[in-house]
Amino acid sequence: MRAKKAKEYVFSDLLGMEAYCKSHYAEYYSKSNFSCNVTQLTKGELLTSSICAPINDVHLELFKSNQTLLYEEDANQSSVAFCWINDPNRVSESNTIIGGHKMRELSIAGFNRLNKTGGNTWDIVGANTVLCCMSLKWDKLKEQIDKMNAYNAYARLEECIGIDSEAPSSSQLRGLFDKHFQHGVKCSQSFYDLAIATLEDSPESENLFTVRSDKTDLIEDLVKLLHEDRPGLPPLTIAQITQYLNSDSKSLRESCQASFDMSILQLIKSIRLEQVKKSYLNPHVPKGLRKFTMKQNALYYGFNNWNSFERLYFQTFSESPEESIDKAGAISVLVSDLLRQRK
After folding, report:
1. Confidence at residue 343, expressed as pLDDT on a 0 to 100 scale
2. CA 42 – CA 144 distance, rounded (Å)
3. pTM for this prediction
């Protein structure tokens, strides 16, 4: 039996990427009502690449973008994610943060989502960073944990955001992942076994794993709040955001700076700019109507001065609002089959 083909998807806009993520996730976890928001945090023309290699019960993906992205998704009880950075030459200092865990050479993170039902999780994927993502089905993983009496692994899933692991099982898990993308692994069981072993064998030292904290929850609530759409009402001010989050402005400012390396105002502008751009790309609205409501959409998201907005928009996306609308009709997703090496 041959392994299924690996496919590479290339996106030039984040609306297309979000639609792809939702449909691809539903293919693996049909019972989960998945949604996501992606925001471009750095300036320049966007190009992202996702290589997916299907296998039963495991979602495997290599992701890379030429811009730093803020990726948000709903927490769920259907899957558990394991993410790490692929940088074999150790040439870059990544600013990637997965679920609040600062990613380094030995880091694996993303799996703490089970106790955030009804909430959201966030990741920052650094520009030109190759991110390896493995998503396992929670019901199958839990069944295997119970069979192995892997109580430490279960505790890690409940408490930790991420770990820095030197355990042999961690290296073997990464090696199996690489092997799958090169040759095609046909059975998913080894991914589950090695994921559990990595969690079970992870060290107890506090500086090698990250637990949930008030700061992590605050940032999760902040990015979710900035996407709240209040029909007919103006966007929230910083004072209102602070009040909604029941936080003092200093704590919020420091947490935002530490997580995103930008001020709250800069983060707000980035998210709202992306929301405006997605309204310009909306395929369900006729092109003529999108052009007619172009200025109203910018005003809706808090950009009161059209000339200033146009300059900021072009500085961020390297195109004008009109160019975004004109490009929306073109194919924005390129898909190609990748040939795997034979064993």
Report:
1. 47
2. 41
3. 0.89
